[in-house]
From TrEMBL, chains A, B:
Descriptive protein name: TetR family transcriptional regulator
InterPro entries reported in the protein's UniProt record: Homeodomain-like_sf, HTH-type_TetR-like_transc_reg, HTH_TetR, Tet_transcr_reg_TetR-rel_C_sf, TetR_C
Swiss-Prot/TrEMBL keywords: DNA-binding, Transcription, Transcription regulation
DNA-binding region in chain numbering: 38-57
Molecular functions (GO terms): DNA-binding transcription factor activity; transcription cis-regulatory region binding
PROSITE patterns: HTH_TETR_2
PANTHER family, A to Z: HTH-TYPE TRANSCRIPTIONAL DUAL REGULATOR CECR, HTH-TYPE TRANSCRIPTIONAL REGULATOR RUTR
Keyword Transcription regulation: yes
Domain HTH tetR-type, first and last residues per copy: 15-75
Tagged with keyword Transcription: yes
Organism: Solirubrobacter ginsenosidimutans
Pfam families per UniProt: TetR_C_12, TetR_N
Length: 199, 199
């Protein structure tokens, strides 16, 4: 063992604990929201001490925001992959909408976006996540158009922003309706985004 | 005075108190959210006793949901009126989006939609409000198309649903950004809805 191996090992263990907390927190928050989950619940699910939530994230709220942002960015990656497997604008847009709405992180992200109104110190992470959603979404649209030779009626960045706005709105309506998602509003989002595609 | 005048007067006074509580609660909740406003705050602003919140609404949360739903339905009426004053599809859609996003009730309604996930007894009012937003929106689109002779690429009901989904999403992003609203995402929503309009 070199004198440096111990700090390295500690850092790796720390990263592992941090990831374990995030992995455990994601599904708990998705199912029960911020108020329905305690630090003790998360620690129990992650196999850590409750104090480690504070040690690694600062607060339960900060872990909530981090889990929400990580979750929605993962959903965005899955959305892009789902789009790649389709052949027509209609099946492409349908796959984007259905894959996005299937993510359990969406409502956690909606709740996180509201939370940071009164927790300004946590707002930068949510803002940065919106910016990444839009930037990655724009890049994905540009690449997809180039690859397929499809055309749209607006700027690719506007497709990406409009897509995520409508998806978050449908997720919110689904929360109120108690359904997995509102099928009619999902269909409407497909039509809205699809109408960008010529002809 | 007839024997009936006293009950009638009492009922009228009750309706006035109820309305005073709603009128006072709307701006307070819009500015500070559910957790940031107490029954005593609302009662002080309305000139009533704190116990009257419970008497007329059952709980602060029920008053919150009622204020949110009333507020967003009023916004919908204003959106329709703003659309009437325009002449082209572009100015029409722009007016709808800007008027909707200017409503302080939007974020209260977003928060109410999340709240009812864990307050199932309050969910019917939010669901009914989504249904009215969509039904009134569809009627407004149908009337507008008939009056102007404009055509759209999808069903009017889908324009209405897609519009409100995207509006709620933009309102949410604005909450996180701390701005009045996210101008780029508002523009994207305009483009998305406008792309429904032929040619």
């Amino acid at each position: 063992m070199t004198p440096f191996s111990h700090p390295r090992a500690t850092r790796a263990a720390g990263q592992q604990t941090r990831r374990a907390l995030l992995d455990a927190a994601g599904p708990l928050f998705a199912a029960r929201g911020l108020a329905g989950v305690s630090q003790a619940d998360i620690a129990a699910a992650a196999g850590t001490f409750p104090s480690q939530v504070t040690y690694y994230f600062g607060s339960k709220e900060a872990l909530f925001v981090e889990a929400a942002c990580r979750g929605v960015l993962r959903a965005a990656t899955e959305v892009e992959r789902a789009g790649d497997r389709t052949r027509t604008p209609r099946t492409y847009v349908r796959a984007l909408v259905d894959t996005a709405l299937a993510s359990p992180a969406l409502l956690t992200f909606v709740e996180a976006s509201l939370l940071v109104r009164r927790r300004q110190e946590l707002a930068p992470r949510v803002r940065e996540t919106f910016a990444r959603l839009h930037a990655e979404g724009e890049r994905a649209v540009v690449e997809n158009l180039a690859k397929r030779g499809w055309q749209i009626r607006t700027h690719p960045g506007e497709e990406a922003r409009g897509f995520w706005a409508a998806i978050l709105g449908v997720a919110l309506e689904s929360a109120a309706s108690g359904e997995a998602f509102s099928a009619a509003s999902a269909d409407a989002t497909v039509q809205l985004v699809l109408s960008l595609y010529a002809p």
